[in-house]
Predict the 3D structure of the following.
Amino acid sequence: MATMPANEDFAPWDDPSARALITFRNVTKRFGRFTAIDAIDLAIYEREFFALLGPSGCGKTTLMRMLAGFETPTEGAIELAGRDIVPVPPNRREVNMMFQSYALFPHLSVWDNIAFGLRRSAMGRADIAARVEEMLRLTRLEPFARRKPHQISGGQRQRVALARSLAKAPKLLLLDEPLGALDKKLRQETQFELMDIQEKTGTTFVIVTHDQEEAMTVASRVAVMDHGRIVQVDTPARIYESPNSVYVADFIGDVNIIEGTAGASSDGPNLAVHWAEGQQALTGPARTPLAGGQRCALAIRPEKIAISGDRPGGMHNVVQGKVLDIAYLGNVSTYHVELPTGHVLKAQTANTRRIARRSHTWDDTVWLSWSDTASVVLPV
Amino acid sequence: MNIRRLLVIAVPYLWLLALFLVPFGIVLKISLSDLAIARPPYTPYLDLAAGLAGLKAFFAGLDFDNFVFLTTDDLYWRAYLSSLWIALSSTALALLVGYPIAYAMSRATPEWRPTLMMLVILPFWTSFLIRVYAWVGILNTEGVLNQFLMLTGVISEPLTILNTRTAVYIGIVYTYLPFMVLPIYATLDRLDDALLEAAEDLGCSRLSAFWLVTVPLSKQGIIAGCFLVFIPAIGEFVIPALLGGSETLMIGKVLWDEFFRNRDWPVASAVAIVLLLILLIPIILFQRNEQKQREAEG
């Protein structure tokens, strides 16, 4: 987040007077009997980097294609800057798209690919040339201007696609899995490049991705989708720390889910969760008010669980178990700990010491503990 | 190992030598000979028994008189020009008819494509001669087409189509259409739909996306299809003979007449050699296009 200094102040979604650039009003899309998008309401603000995140088939691509104009909603309205764009064909929308396969024209040079959209407008030759040069500079493609798409690398092709879709200075840029074809290292570099370009141009970006790490890195807000519905829209930090459902908690990052029943509220926002016969209740803040006796789940991230050889004092949430497995990932290790109840919890510790000095090993009896605020209690 | 490799390479070369180069040499030799009332009907005839003197007499008997003769009678160059013209215009017509067919095939749903492909190839399963002859029954003044048009009241007098150039165009376009459709379909089939969406996204209408993306990207197929129609059409004999009547002048017919009516083998051979030289240019261009396509893909 260090590359987005304005991030702290930039939160138009919390400002009731802010007007959204894009508004989905009760949008539904059906293909035959299949409902791809189910009554979605959504507002995206200017200069946002908005991510649509979900597994394949969740409707995120359909949502994006409706913004581009390649699909028409079955019901509902989509507004861009206050104007209904549903009847506007794709070639007349101030929206451009970067395709997943890049869709570069193989018969045109890099220069002509970038100029393609500009030539369809009323722009003069000199202005077109200036704009193309500007885009080539922005994406560091000047040395490859005369090459054909098949004569450059995958990373360069990705930048040509970006330059081409940005050339017309659209109000909204759509990115369909823009980094999917790149290898991991290049993908991480390119994520920061994308954020940099988004900030420089001030364009609103909507990105479709199934990679939660990518969405968390680049986006100002993330919409988590499932089966044609938006489950949660929030900043990456809030999505991670305060998911509104087991689905979101499970989809983003690693999580332990302990199911149980809600007890009566004991102290303030915290709720006791009875999770196993004869075990002390676990406590955590409830995301939504829950009635006593209602089924619920306590979600706790592995890195928030402390692991120790002796019983720690002063903690409400303490369980004992046996180390079942250790996954060594270099920077961190994940301990799989089996409780007497049969639950297996994952606890993660940073490897600040060398691996030989590890204090717990297979079959050791250990204590797991976490603070009251580390977990979140969710309805099921 | 080396000998085995040599044998493997030798097979196609021997094949070309025996079935292409030797017959070509014979035709070339006949074209340089003179007409004679004999069997075969030309001189000189190589007499190997006469030894070196016979060989000398043989080469002394060869000359370019037949080729000179082709320039003296305007029938020949008019036949060549007319053939070129008919081949060119029927290639253009085949493109005009074939491109939409190929385009429709590539846009059809995947489960329909094999059926459509079959429909294009199916006519090849019957004899070419029968298919062309069937057009006589369709096009003549009492034919199916005229009967239908008169029955529906479109015309009151039968149209004369058979034994005109129109009938030749119909015949050539009909016969060689698959050669136009298949290479164009092959290039259109590979066309990524995302490219058309990208063009639209960047401000193209459907029509301009077609001109700026679809047509340039099917260029290789168009070129291949045009050569595959043009090259056989120029030397075509059966179609003008059956459908064109006496009015249509084509070099294939001239060749046939020289050979079978006049029994003038030397002049017929000269006509064939010149035709081959004319065809050499488009064949070389075609090969170059194919090579360029392979390079673009590789």
